[in-house]
Amino acid sequence: MGLCLLGWNTVPVMCLLQGITSEGVCYPSVPYWRCFQDVHVMIFVGFGFLMTFLQRYGYSSVGFNFLLAAFGIQWALLMQGWFHSYKEGYIHLGVEEAGLINADFCVGSVCVAFGAVLGKVSPVQLLIMTLFQVTLFSVNEFILLSLLEVKDAGGSMTIHTFGAYFGLTVTWILYRPSLHQSKERQSSVYHSDLFAMIGTLFLWMYWPSFNSAVSKHGDAQHRAAINTYCSLAACVLTSVALSSALHKKGKLDMVHIQNATLAGGVAVGTAAEMMLMPYGSLIVGFICGIVSTLGFVYLTPFLESRLRIQDTCGIHNLHGLPGIIGAIVGAVTASCANAKVYGIKGLANFFGFDGFKTSWDSSMQGKFQAAGLFVSLAIALVGGIIVGVILKLPFWGQPADENCFEDSVYWEELKSTVLHPEDSTLKPAEP
Amino acid sequence: MGLCLLGWNTVPVMCLLQGITSEGVCYPSVPYWRCFQDVHVMIFVGFGFLMTFLQRYGYSSVGFNFLLAAFGIQWALLMQGWFHSYKEGYIHLGVEEAGLINADFCVGSVCVAFGAVLGKVSPVQLLIMTLFQVTLFSVNEFILLSLLEVKDAGGSMTIHTFGAYFGLTVTWILYRPSLHQSKERQSSVYHSDLFAMIGTLFLWMYWPSFNSAVSKHGDAQHRAAINTYCSLAACVLTSVALSSALHKKGKLDMVHIQNATLAGGVAVGTAAEMMLMPYGSLIVGFICGIVSTLGFVYLTPFLESRLRIQDTCGIHNLHGLPGIIGAIVGAVTASCANAKVYGIKGLANFFGFDGFKTSWDSSMQGKFQAAGLFVSLAIALVGGIIVGVILKLPFWGQPADENCFEDSVYWEELKSTVLHPEDSTLKPAEP
Amino acid sequence: MGLCLLGWNTVPVMCLLQGITSEGVCYPSVPYWRCFQDVHVMIFVGFGFLMTFLQRYGYSSVGFNFLLAAFGIQWALLMQGWFHSYKEGYIHLGVEEAGLINADFCVGSVCVAFGAVLGKVSPVQLLIMTLFQVTLFSVNEFILLSLLEVKDAGGSMTIHTFGAYFGLTVTWILYRPSLHQSKERQSSVYHSDLFAMIGTLFLWMYWPSFNSAVSKHGDAQHRAAINTYCSLAACVLTSVALSSALHKKGKLDMVHIQNATLAGGVAVGTAAEMMLMPYGSLIVGFICGIVSTLGFVYLTPFLESRLRIQDTCGIHNLHGLPGIIGAIVGAVTASCANAKVYGIKGLANFFGFDGFKTSWDSSMQGKFQAAGLFVSLAIALVGGIIVGVILKLPFWGQPADENCFEDSVYWEELKSTVLHPEDSTLKPAEP
């Protein structure tokens, strides 16, 4: 058993998949349509319900997420079509190469940013934010994938890091000093946390599809799915363990279970399709569970009190830090890639070392990966400041400080009581 | 950008998918099994939870939907087997050609009709309705698809129009003049609307699979999925916009978000697999969001007060009107089909212009599509009257007027209070 | 119609699928990745939410299920890797042959056992139970599949029978004579039952994927899915009918709808991939709905009062009895297999009658199937006693008798009240 563990954990060659050194064609491909539907579920049910933890903001969490995602998808089809599939005057649309999956990914980064401003903005502000963020996402993605030739299958940089720091910058600009007036509503109740668990679980379960959706068919796709699966499983354990360890009575906190357990999926986004190996994935997930939980306990209060960043869902701990970790892991993994593991053809094929990249080696690829992280951060910060200033204009219908996290500002007739059976005088059913 | 928008919106040829003029074989097919599972989720979770919006009828919504769907599936396998796959004395069963997907589709039309009578009928009445409706559905589908050779991949006519007008006719016959006695229960509470959103989202997300499930493999299947996706996305925007615009304080109504957002999927049911083009789909979705929301605000109250049609879930706005629009869009799109877009072989291949249809052209196909709509409506109305009269017989255990929309008539021991933590004297956990 | 029914019900040859006598290659295979994701949903959302029916134990049901499944998956990858895919010092990992699906199956049996001890054990006890049960599962599976060469695609024996009797033995050892002190919390409330229906429906819908996930590609896989689908549909009808028939006022019981409707999937686990035929599946489902509902009404109270087995979720009725029925059905179906139905090559190919099994016939296979059931029961009982004794040690943080079924022992800050709209003084939204 010891030998087995050793073998599993330390020797890369032939460990993950048989035939791994071939040119990436020995494993059957997963149909894109399948991954597309899984990603779709993550965007609409996953992100939508994850944010229903607020006791009085469930309609808006699900409803506004639905609205901005549907709007973002259409705008993203146009923007991404313009950048990637514009030929002879037409935009070409498809499930795979041009379009639907990429549009969902793009909207994913908006959903991330939505988590930071949740409860404090109006639907009009959300639509404006979506409009700008989709545009910036497309520019950033074009720079990373097409100009820098960075690998980022699961979007650690393009989706999570970009989305998180964009959202955090926006919420920093929109700082509300009197938000404590809504403090009583900025918490969960029993059933709202159960609704949020629906979101958590669908995100967690379909994350392997997310990270492998746009990988090269075959081996790389399988690797991406397996690495993500391992990382997520490890992340759950450390999140739960640390959540209990940091509580004075050893109790668990629903916030950590809902969020920190997902950090492992974010952090293998870039490296998942590479030869990270299962043991590498487990280590990444292990670390991210710790970092993310620590972030919720210590960093989020610090950000709010000192840096005036009011991060409603704690996206800095779920997408920001793990996204950066993911970008670094990706850069390191790319740097360490060698022909012994990938095969000579496989290495060139996987990283696309042809065209202007003919003279590149793994180390160069690693440097460009790191550059991609800084470009994403820069665009997120600058874009976030601009969009934040636009959203600060006083005519977008934003709620007053004492009305934040409250559905009844935007939704008709809310009732929160259930008629009790004893209230209604029942007659027996007819024969 | 302007050019791009123009290209995307106005030029049909080569716009949607490359290689579109070939004989429909250039795109890989989506496995049927996949679409089958997605449709399965729509029937059981989608329709089941969509109807849980009623505050005191959640058990029945999910439970009776489960019951009638499970019963309907078995009966549909027999009925459809008899019409479509009866060979040498045996019914042949398969996931694709004969059976499971078609049985689910058939049950879908029963779920639609269930929405009209929701809360006012007993489980026994539902089973009787299912028995008759599945039979009538199979007859109607056989006439449309096998005799009239109509195209209806997503079932705008066979599923939605037929199901809606059948259900509306039944509820018209079962008119209850004293239903106002249960008025207090015919509304939602906070968490019941969140449960309903689970249904809405799963229907919305998997609708592209629904509309493409029985399309010809390859191109037609991809077109169906992409067109449905575009139509649904557009529909969300106009539903939300109009819901807000029609409220005197600009607030949103959960009923519209839950229902009208889905109308776009109904309305591209027939035309989705044809050359509707993305811009066509967006227009259809755009219009349906408006029509459906207007229907909820103005038409449903009118139907109830003037025509004595008590439509609990508003299926006339979600399935009835959009189904008719879908049938018309399908007829027009079929009429406009030409060899320039489909290719000569592609056109004949797609519409099956051989056998007794050798002399047909697109215009003839369009006329038969229109005929299919009228046949569906006629069978729905006549069948609905007959079934309604049968269900009006007084010995099916129907609830009294003051017990409608109430679970406790049919379900044991309902409690609606949660024990509060402070109620239970807790001892600390053992070491 | 009569003829058709006859044909469907009684003649096996050529009835289920065309080309059935070939060597199992004529139907396209379903990608494993797809089934894997469906099984994943069943483990995390299905089992997790199925157990949220307890009014004060929702966090723990979903959260601890999440924890033990994530832990179990990792341990199972190692254990199963050691038994099945250990080559040249390394464990080989893949979605299909070695790994992810099998790890999920293995965890499935832990989730089953969790249902018996639900509410009465601490998370530490659950992790210990998972550790041992995964190990025992792997040993048992190795004996059945690799030594006895038993067929058990859907795991009636390896997953359900083993998991149920293991869990029942553990809860028998952990018997709490004063559990009545928590009786008030060992029941459901309105919305907790709706959450549980989410679990029920996802288990029900994806069960065909579960039973067909590790079948031989092609025909066997299609048969497994279709047989499971038929059995589940029949099971819903008898469960509902009997639930109503056994109530003195004819009302339905949510417990039966949530659980007994699934028994049909358990009971075709072994035989699903064999030539059970649709009529056979319907009969199995029909019987299991009856047995399972009767079990909930009469057997569970008996087990608790006389045998001191406190079975929180009634897993004996959902997994125990149907698992044994499934094993028997599998043994009988295997015994009856003949070359007329499978074809000569098909028979040898399907049951693997080569190597040391060259001299076997169907009857011998049937005997080994029966032997597999007894081995599973023996390992479950012996293992359950050992693990139960370990868990009875007083330092695992188990809750006191009066704190069972209570989240607040392990979870921070529970609130069960929702702020009412009228409570919060709202100002109108800014322009």
From TrEMBL, chains A, B, C:
Its main location: membrane. The keyword Protein biosynthesis does not apply. Residues 1-15 form the signal peptide. It is a multi-pass membrane protein. GO terms for cellular component: apical plasma membrane; basolateral plasma membrane. Pfam families: Ammonium_transp. Keywords: Ammonia transport, Cell membrane, Glycoprotein, Membrane, Signal, Transmembrane, Transmembrane helix, Transport. The chain crosses the membrane at residues 39-57, 64-83, 98-119, 126-148, 154-175, 187-206, 226-245, 257-276, 282-300, 370-391. It catalyses: CO2(out) = CO2(in); methylamine(out) = methylamine(in); NH4(+)(in) = NH4(+)(out). It is found in: Apical cell membrane. GO terms for molecular function: ammonium channel activity; ankyrin binding; carbon dioxide transmembrane transporter activity; identical protein binding. Residues 33-409 form the Ammonium transporter AmtB-like domain. The keyword Transmembrane applies. One of its GO terms (biological process) is transepithelial ammonium transport. Ammonium transporter involved in the maintenance of acid-base homeostasis. Transports ammonium and its related derivative methylammonium across the plasma membrane of epithelial cells likely contributing to renal transepithelial ammonia transport and ammonia metabolism. Postulated to primarily mediate an electroneutral bidirectional transport of NH3 ammonia species according to a mechanism that implies interaction of an NH4(+) ion with acidic residues of the pore entry followed by dissociation of NH4(+) into NH3 and H(+). PANTHER family: AMMONIUM TRANSPORTER, AMMONIUM TRANSPORTER RH TYPE C. Belongs to the ammonium transporter (TC 2.A.49) family. Rh subfamily. Homotrimer. This is Ammonium transporter Rh type C.
